[in-house]
């Protein structure tokens, strides 16, 4: 009855008989008798279909019913398995032929074909030569037409294309097989044309699977396929395949499921086209490079169009319904696009910037057909992506772009953010073309007052002040006034306030000492007055946060306020043209003025590690920035540190001591206070260690670093 049921399953044309046979055989596979008949079905005189059923039954019994076997029969079963595996694996062709026969038989049941495809997916991972899998891969392509087999066929076709080791050097015997795989992949175009309907219906499986197959073939065999110059048209069609259809916008349904499978694989494909593929092209000899660059340049421009379309924000109404997680997914999605554009620039160069500039210019000057803000933002995002990592100082379109930016009607936060980030990305260019600063600086200062643009506006101002500081004195008063206003209004969060102070430090560094002191007085007097008031209050959590915030503002200001320009390139013509500063360093002047106030704060907060750390940070950052210019503060700071550490030892005091030792211990004038501080810290620390160093791991770490200085 077993062989009769198998005959009905595989050869009986009556579908009812097939279904009955399948149901009976599935029950037989899990029966106790399957341990016996499965070995009989594996005899070499049986046809492949019978052998396959026997192997399948044996697999089910071993994987699900292992406990049925007595322990003393394990070795016997193991021996039988190895015997049959050796017999069936006597050659790749045997396995291949068996799978082909099962897959190509028209009356094979769907579940059998599915298992064959899964078997093939696993089998090819054993580094089977690609040419031995050709027929099976072709059969997998045919199975893509069956909706029930589609997912499994995608896995099988993709696994067959990803042959380990076949892409490096790609032996000649593989080339013909590779070329034969291109037509069936291109033949999937008709199915891919249904993607738009699939997007609208929320079913992305077809497009997802097809693009996986295209990615697998191109990604793993790009070098070998490119090397076949006479077949460039076929390979061009393969690369062009995902972009020949309408460039799909990313719907919310995809975003909710992690950007959607299809989007992910399409981005992989574009990344392959622009990175691996570009590296392969540029590694060819010059004559082939010229051919391929001419052939593929239009494709790269088309990829840019698709990427920028997909980077566009949805409508304001739709975006308003997105959750914070969905917005973060979209941000990451755009970062992937940004990375891809950088690769594309390596191939297209300045021509890409010219193309983006021309499109942006047409958008902003076409009064008859006003564009959406999303389109404008996407083009600017393309500029920003390239300018952030590529040197565009020699581009002839940047002056035009700087001229276009003020013409952008900014009525949307996302667009305004991108405008700010684009200006920031061009800050080095502005340093070389200072006459253009006034075109964009007013936009940045205006954006500072908008809390929704906090990160973009403050970071952009910081970049401009850092890169263009020697050309900013004419604008310094306005920058300081606007910054002071937004700081006092507490528009920005703590981190952005710290960035803003760093920006002002860069800005003031390029002014004369008198101007620096004047601006410092205006800028920090309100905070000093507030700190004086807080120092008189009884310590509590609220005024603790306020004290730490004010100390943080001073620390960040002094981090970048450097009139000696220690961090600048000493060959820089900008540094050479500055006059030599006379008199005490402005930072030292301010520190001396507030020193007693800081001591007063410490007297009440010495047992609070965070406040002590904030105090030490002011001096530590000032020492790192000023270096020898900090010398006037050394005696009184050493005395204060010694008193602090003797009272309550804290790691931050040791870290500041280490900085002082590093910079001033070699100078005879400062050696006595530095030596006294070092001996005191060492004595107090060793006494603390005698009581148990395990209770003070941070002090142990900082003290060891001090000794290693």
UniProtKB/TrEMBL annotation:
Mention one GO biological process in which this protein takes part, according to its record.
protein import into nucleus
What would you give as a GO molecular function for this chain, any one?
A: small GTPase binding
Q: Which domain of life is it from?
A: Eukaryota
Alphabetized InterPro entries for the sequence: ARM-like, ARM-type_fold, Exportin-1/Importin-b-like, Importin-beta_N, Importin_beta-like_NTR, Importin_rep_1, Importin_rep_2, TPR_TNPO3_IPO13_3rd
PROSITE patterns, sorted: IMPORTIN_B_NT
Q: Which GO terms describe its cellular component?
A: cytoplasm; nucleus
Official protein name in the record: Importin-13
Biological source species:
Apaloderma vittatum (Bar-tailed trogon)
